[in-house]
């Protein structure tokens, strides 16, 4: 269970006294997630999500909270942080930085079709456009230097074949960076479990705590690698086309982005192969959580490397 820091009803009631959210009715731990402690909170004024941050510091967090507030004001269905009586989004609870945000409607789906993918593509394009007017910036903490460092940390746990694949791919992306493509604020983790759906309507985008500035195409590739991937590690053509065409209708992809698409798919797969290897072999201290299978993204990466680069998706 991904509740690393326990919060009692008594502790939360005291903390909520600094907010205008009414009285506490229910507190429920959320088992999903691997980075933060999350609780569903119901008060006499509505439903919310409480997050205690286990890795991010108080100095890093204003970027994420201000970004969500900005996007929510610009019509993106994402959590809206609640300010306390001193007009602050960020507080402290049980020695952890903490915030409370609006709880959105809908639920995440495992089985998705082309209509779901089109909806996600459109809202991702809208997010990228809305974030262009957000003045704050955050470097991608999982970019080139992180890939090189994490690869060295996990290599002792790998077979010689996997270690060679990892070394080769890390080196490839040093030589084939996406830095010259259109840049902006990206979600960087828009997997199916971070999108709430009501039918094919997007109820909400959640978990913005990997958001950063990077290539917009990289964010599209991260999303496609989860939403459009078949069980065989190959992209489903109908779902991929639906997502990319819907995105393109909102923020047209540039010719240089079309050319870089195979590279974006590979680096997006590499990022999650590496992070899953790290979570599996070098877990943090504390309560056990379910580590995602790194083999899934290794297979996806291998398929992208072997794929025909001339594939046309739009």
CATH C-level of the largest domain: Alpha Beta
**CATH H level, superfamily name of the largest domain:** Aminoglycoside phosphotransferase (APH), C-terminal lobe
Could you say what the CATH architecture of the largest domain is? Alpha-Beta Complex
SSE run: HEEEHEEHHHEEEEHHHH
Strand order of the largest sheet: 1-2-3-5-4
What does this structure look like?
The chain is an alpha+beta fold and 314 residues long. The protein contains nine helices and nine strands. The strands form three sheets. The protein has a five-stranded antiparallel β-sheet, with helices on one face. Helix 4 (144-154) runs parallel beside helix 8. The relative contact order is 0.13.
What structural keywords apply?
Phosphorylase Kinase, domain 1; 9 strands; about 325 residues; Aminoglycoside 3'-phosphotransferase, Chain: A, domain 2; 2 domains; alpha+beta; two-stranded antiparallel ribbon; 5-stranded antiparallel sheet
In short:
With 314 residues, this protein is an alpha+beta fold.
Mind sketching the topology for me?
Elements: H1 9-16, E1 24-29, E2 36-43, E3 46-53, H2 61-73, E4 91-93, E5 96-102, H3 114-131, H4 144-154, H5 160-175, E6 183-186, E7 195-198, E8 201-205, E9 212-215, H6 216-227, H7 237-250, H8 255-281, H9 294-306
Antiparallel strand pairs: 1-2, 2-3, 3-5, 4-5, 6-9, 7-8
Helix pairs in contact: 3-6, 3-7, 4-5, 4-8, 5-8, 6-8, 8-9
């Amino acid at each position: 269970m991904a509740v690393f820091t326990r919060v009692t009803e008594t502790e939360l009631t005291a903390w909520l006294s600094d907010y205008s959210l009414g009285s506490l009715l229910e507190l429920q731990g959320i088992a999903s997630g691997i980075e933060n402690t999350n609780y569903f909170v119901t008060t006499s004024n509505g439903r919310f999500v409480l997050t205690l941050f286990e890795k991010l510091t108080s100095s890093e967090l204003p970027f994420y909270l201000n970004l969500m507030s900005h996007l929510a004001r610009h019509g993106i269905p994402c959590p809206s942080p609640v300010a306390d009586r001193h007009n602050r989004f960020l507080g402290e609870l049980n020695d952890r930085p903490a915030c409370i945000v609006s709880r959105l409607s809908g639920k995440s789906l495992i089985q998705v079709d082309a209509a779901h993918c089109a909806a996600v593509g459109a809202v991702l394009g809208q997010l990228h456009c809305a974030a262009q007017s957000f003045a704050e910036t955050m470097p991608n903490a999982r970019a080139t230097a992180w890939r090189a460092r994490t690869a060295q940390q996990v290599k002792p746990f790998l077979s010689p074949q996997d270690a060679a694949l990892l070394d080769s791919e890390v080196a490839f992306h040093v030589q084939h960076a996406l830095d010259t493509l259109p840049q902006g604020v990206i979600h960087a983790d828009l997997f199916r479990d971070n999108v709430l759906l009501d039918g094919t309507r997007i109820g909400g985008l959640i978990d913005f705590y990997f958001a950063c500035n990077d290539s917009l195409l990289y964010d599209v590739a991260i999303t496609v690698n989860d939403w459009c991937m078949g069980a065989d590690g190959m992209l489903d053509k109908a779902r991929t086309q639906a997502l990319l065409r819907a995105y393109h209708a909102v923020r047209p992809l540039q010719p240089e982005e079309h050319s870089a698409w195979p590279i974006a798919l590979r680096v997006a797969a590499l990022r999650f192969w590496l992070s899953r290897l790290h979570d599996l072999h070098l877990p943090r201290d504390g309560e056990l959580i379910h580590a995602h299978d790194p083999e899934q993204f290794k297979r996806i990466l291998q398929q992208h490397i072997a794929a025909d680069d001339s594939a046309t998706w739009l």
